[in-house]
């Protein structure tokens, strides 16, 4: 019963945690270095100087390499690297549990040749369970490479482990671990384990970490337009009017330049107003995988607040969301819409904006972020983890069936009431004949995502001590455009978390 009470309190606790947020001062680690470097407005502390208790790493079997010559143009964090010849890890003592950004920087710029053939595993753990999967780095010639994750960390003890393959080394140039504003519209808190795939400044210029409020990189969107001449850029010099309140966009949601530039419908003189029109961005993603899509909007085009500026947002053709810039308090007010959807077998994720009515010309997009859910993958489950889940499942199942059904009812109720709220706000409608829950994962908005009592139920949490176990299987591969990128193939093998920290406040 105590647990039920805690569960009911949960949304309130997370909300209060998100109401004020500013860029945390830690942890930014300049690996393989004894000096600090400022990058993207943050101070990356050399891992040889940060001798405090907060960040530590296993020094044995590691070495450093640096290159000052010829690389003066590359940021300081890439001029030194830590190389691991055996299993080693960085340990972080976080101020609190909760949602965190985790970024890993890899570069071969300053590295010996053995780096380019490095194969290694990276895993992230909060709590006491460890588990590794094989992971290979094949091409580090195109550098630097940054891998970003958003992880719901369940215990303040956070560890990132590097395990080189036999006769190989592992490496890392810099690590960032810092708390994030927990504003993701995802139903289950335990589902928030995401890997960033795309981050686009639509209609604008590339934004580097120096110009972002959280050290992010925003790329150009043009290459992803399905029909390039269907859209045109527009921009404003006016500073965005951020609305106060924890549910709207802040300067940390996306920086000013994202909201000051946009892409809108390109009406050619021949077409003019009087035709329905779509602009589509088509992004290559992993097939049949659940994705978190955040679309950023800011009406810099309209002269007045007017329902004529409202339009539709489509995701994968079957999810339609009503976007209503006219309901903002003022013009040039940033806001965002979150969508959770499963990619289909085409390996493409389509995001479109479309006019609502024949007689009006509307529709724009300012920014687009796509993140892949890292979740349990049946095909790669190892005997160790699956047997563990099995054993835990076996012991608990009998005793907790009653509580489970109770919880299930609570969740159904919460979901229903949340859905109701949602309807009024976003008017998510599914109008396509496509099945709602394709791929067994989601296919609706986050609110439509089926509740999975086995993997998502907070019940598991009563079981294990403060532990979230993540498993990241990473490998480089060639993209169609010739650039190689990391991709994450494996996921959370099992997730356990305890509510212990909640009772002390997050
Ligand atoms: C330093 O970098 C330059 C150019 O990137 C490279 O040619 C040189 O071999 C590097 N030196 C060392 C010691 O890694
Ligand atoms: C590594 O990437 C570079 C640049 O993209 C490419 O020219 C080279 O062929 C790649 N090497 C391998 C082994 O894939
Ligand atoms: C990025 O920031 C630098 C320094 O603050 C500034 O000079 C530059 O114009 C900014 N670039 C963009 C694209 O905003
Ligand atoms: C807009 O459409 C016209 C006519 O189709 C085309 O000539 C023009 O290049 C397009 N503009 C952009 C920015 O693509
Ligand atoms: C940008 O939008 C404004 C307002 O709708 C419009 O007057 C202007 O022509 C647009 N500029 C471009 C380059 O499309
Ligand atoms: C995305 O658009 C492309 C091109 O129109 C289409 O081939 C593909 O099936 C679409 N994928 C989804 C998931 O809608
Ligand atoms: C816009 O896209 C939606 C979803 O793919 C589609 O149903 C609609 O017919 C499209 N409209 C036009 C005018 O192409």
Supply the number of structural domains. Answer: 3
Helix content: 10-25%
Question: What global shape is seen?
Answer: elongated
Strand content: 25-35%
Unreliable sequence segments: 1-18, 128-136, 376-403, 418-506
- Care to count the β-strands? 29
**Structural class by helix and strand composition:** alpha+beta
The CATH superfamily name of the largest domain is Galactose-binding lectin
H/I helix tally = 5
User: What is the quaternary state of this protein?
Assistant: single chain
Q: Sheet with the most strands?
A: 10 strands, mixed
Bound molecules: 2-acetamido-2-deoxy-beta-D-glucopyranose
Second-tier CATH architecture of the largest domain: Sandwich
CATH class of the largest domain: Mainly Beta
Main location: membrane
Keywords: ATP-binding, Glycoprotein, Kinase, Membrane, Nucleotide-binding, Serine/threonine-protein kinase, Signal, Transferase, Transmembrane, Transmembrane helix
Transmembrane segments: 388-412
Signal peptide: 1-16
Task: Reconstruct the topology from this structure.
Layout: H1 2-18, E1 28-30, E2 37-39, E3 42-46, E4 55-57, E5 62-66, E6 80-84, E7 88-93, E8 98-106, E9 120-126, E10 145-153, E11 157-164, E12 170-172, E13 174-179, E14 193-201, E15 231-235, H2 256-260, E16 261-265, E17 278-284, E18 290-297, E19 311-315, E20 319-323, E21 335-342, E22 348-354, E23 364-365, E24 367-373, H3 383-426, E25 429-430, H4 460-463, E26 468-469, E27 473-478, E28 484-490, E29 494-495, H5 500-503
Parallel strand pairs: 1-3
Antiparallel strand pairs: 1-13, 2-3, 4-7, 5-6, 6-12, 7-11, 8-10, 8-13, 9-11, 9-26, 10-14, 14-24, 15-16, 16-23, 17-22, 18-21, 18-24, 19-20, 19-22, 20-25, 26-29, 27-28
Bound molecules: 2-acetamido-2-deoxy-beta-D-glucopyranose (7 copies).
The site of one 2-acetamido-2-deoxy-beta-D-glucopyranose (NAG) has 5 residues, from loops.
């Amino acid at each position: 019963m105590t647990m039920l009470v805690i569960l009911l309190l949960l949304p309130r606790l997370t909300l209060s945690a998100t109401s004020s947020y500013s860029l945390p001062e830690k942890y930014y680690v300049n690996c393989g270095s004894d000096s600090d470097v400022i990058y993207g407005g943050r101070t990356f502390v050399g891992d040889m100087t940060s001798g405090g208790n907060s960040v530590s790493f296993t020094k044995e079997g590691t070495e450093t390499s640096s290159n000052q010559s010829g690389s003066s143009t590359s940021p300081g964090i890439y001029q030194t690297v830590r190389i691991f010849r055996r299993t080693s890890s960085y340990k972080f003592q976080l101020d609190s549990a909760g949602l965190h950004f985790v970024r890993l920087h890899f570069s071969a710029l300053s590295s010996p040749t053995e780096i380019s053939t490095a194969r290694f595993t990276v895993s992230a753990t909060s709590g006491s369970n460890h588990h590794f999967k094989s992971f290979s780095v094949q091409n580090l010639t195109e550098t630097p490479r940054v891998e970003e994750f958003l992880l719901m960390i369940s215990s303040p003890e956070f560890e990132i482990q590097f395990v080189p393959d036999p006769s190989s080394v592992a490496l890392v140039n810099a690590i960032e671990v810092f708390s994030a504003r927990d504003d993701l519209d995802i139903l289950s808190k335990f589902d928030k384990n995401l890997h960033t795939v795309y981050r686009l400044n639509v209609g604008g210029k590339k934004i580097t970490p120096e110009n972002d409020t959280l050290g992010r990189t925003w790329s150009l969107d043009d290459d992803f337009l399905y029909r390039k001449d269907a859209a045109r850029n527009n921009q404003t010099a006016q500073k965005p009017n951020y609305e106060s309140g924890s549910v709207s966009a802040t300067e940390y949601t996306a920086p000013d330049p994202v909201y000051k530039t946009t892409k809108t419908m390109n009406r050619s003189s021949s077409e003019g107003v009087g035709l329905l029109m779509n602009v589509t961005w088509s992004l290559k993603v992993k097939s049949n995988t659940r994705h978190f899509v955040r679309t950023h909007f800011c009406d810099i085009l309209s002269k007045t607040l007017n329902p004529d500026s409202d339009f539709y947002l489509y995701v994968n053709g079957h999810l339609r969301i009503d976007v209503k810039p006219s309901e903002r308090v003022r013009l040039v007010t940033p806001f965002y819409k979150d969508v959770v959807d499963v990619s289909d077998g085409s390996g493409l994720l389509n995001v479109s904006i479309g006019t609502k009515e024949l007689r009006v010309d509307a529709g724009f997009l300012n920014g687009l972020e796509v993140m892949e859910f890292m979740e349990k993958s049946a095909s790669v489950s190892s005997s160790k983890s699956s047997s563990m889940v099995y054993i835990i499942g076996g012991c608990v199942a009998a005793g907790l069936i009653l509580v489970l059904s109770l919880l299930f009812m609570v969740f159904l109720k919460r979901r229903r009431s949340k859905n109701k709220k949602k309807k009024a706000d976003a008017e998510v409608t599914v109008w396509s004949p496509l099945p709602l829950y394709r791929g067994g994962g989601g296919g609706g908005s986050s609110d439509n995502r089926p509740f999975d009592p086995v993997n998502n139920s907070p019940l598991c949490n009563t079981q294990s001590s403060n532990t979230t176990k993540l498993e990241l299987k990473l490998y480089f591969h060639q993209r169609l455009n010739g650039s190689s990128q990391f991709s994450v193939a494996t996921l959370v093998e099992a997730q356990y978390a305890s509510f212990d920290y909640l009772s002390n406040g997050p």
